[in-house]
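Continuing the series of single-chain predictions for the mutant panel. This is the parent chain; the variants come on the following pages.
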Amino acid sequence: MEQFPILGAPDTGDTAWMLAAAALVLLMTPGLAFFYGGMVRAKGVLNMIMMSISAMGVITVLWALYGYSVAFGDNTAGVIGDPGQFFGLKGLIGANGSADAPIALVGTIPATVFVGFQLMFAIITVALISGAVADRIKFGSWLLFAALWATFIYFPVAHWVFDFDVTGSDGETVIHQGGWIANQLKAIDFAGGTAVHINAGVAGLVLAIILGKRLGWPGTPMRPHNLPFVMLGAGLLWFGWYGFNAGSAVSANGVAGSTFVTTTVATAAAMLAWLLTERIRDGHATSLGAASGIVAGLVAITPSCSSVNVVGALAIGVTAGVLCALAVGLKFKFGFDDSLDVVGVHLVGGLVGTLLVGLVATTEAPAGVAGLFYGGGFDQLWRQAVGAGAVLLYSAVGTAILALIVKYTVGLRLDKEEEASGIDESEHAESAYDFVAVGTGSVLGRHGGEE
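Parent structure:
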């Protein structure tokens, strides 16, 4: 049997693009930190940012040790990779002492570059969950939950969705078996509608329910404290998302170009659709709505960007913009405190994008699959529904188990006094804005005192 991973010389153009794409995806996590941080109250902004930034630390260590191996190692049932195969990234690092020696490849790029690219997906998926539980989860408990959730939920699901079978030089013999959703079910999820957004969205819902509502919610106003932060975060997310979607081509080719365009079109359409929905429903269009519409469009086009044309991208963007704008109100109807609308944007947006592949996919797009509206019947639609449903169910049950384990061991939630005083002070002994010092300095300055 041929060696896996395959050894060879990488394509320098593809490698350069994928290094840049990985860096773009990493930038999305600080972008998310600003997006979420601006949406919370002033007394919780540092903690909100820290939950995203801390994911960069926790998930990187786990990914390098065994996460990549669980997600992309060999398996026998399409369910989980061998955690020992690439433990500590053995066999993937280095070039046998020579810059010209053959190295482990994934397609045309070094395996190490692919490791880094996929790491960034793992980081932001965990960070996404934090928006559902703002202001009330212990920081240490968040770190523990993040490690457990990545290990038992994200890494296996990434294997199902992102790990494709690899054939040998004869083009027929399978030398590496990938995950069941990508290879047996053949559901299309180009860049993570199921593995990232549905997965994190339902996890946020379950964790928010188990954690309970914020003190005073929904009666006490909990408005965003810094909308410029939110807009900055949305801009960084849109910028970084080109690495997310176009980078998932794993090559500097026409697929990357096509997904770049459909990502842009769907995102623009979703923003406008959200603003129009707000205008009709509330009488005004808001900056928060624009930022949320951008993210909803990005989420929805993520699974479908390789399988639709511009018309399909417009349809997905408009649908996501309208449905996600309406869905964010579900938490008030059903009484779950999803602080920053992770469910309404990521779960609903992920479902929209994943399921609409079965309707508006066209053979003129790179994936080459026809949906119902383009003569393909229901074949792709049922595959999309099964893939989305499987990830949703697995994540919901698994998250509930892990959250309850943390709750009844080290505890999940801050006590009431700490929550009331502010999570920044109680968990980090810091505050984002030192109003007292600013005010004092200003008064002294006006009266000739020392600054």
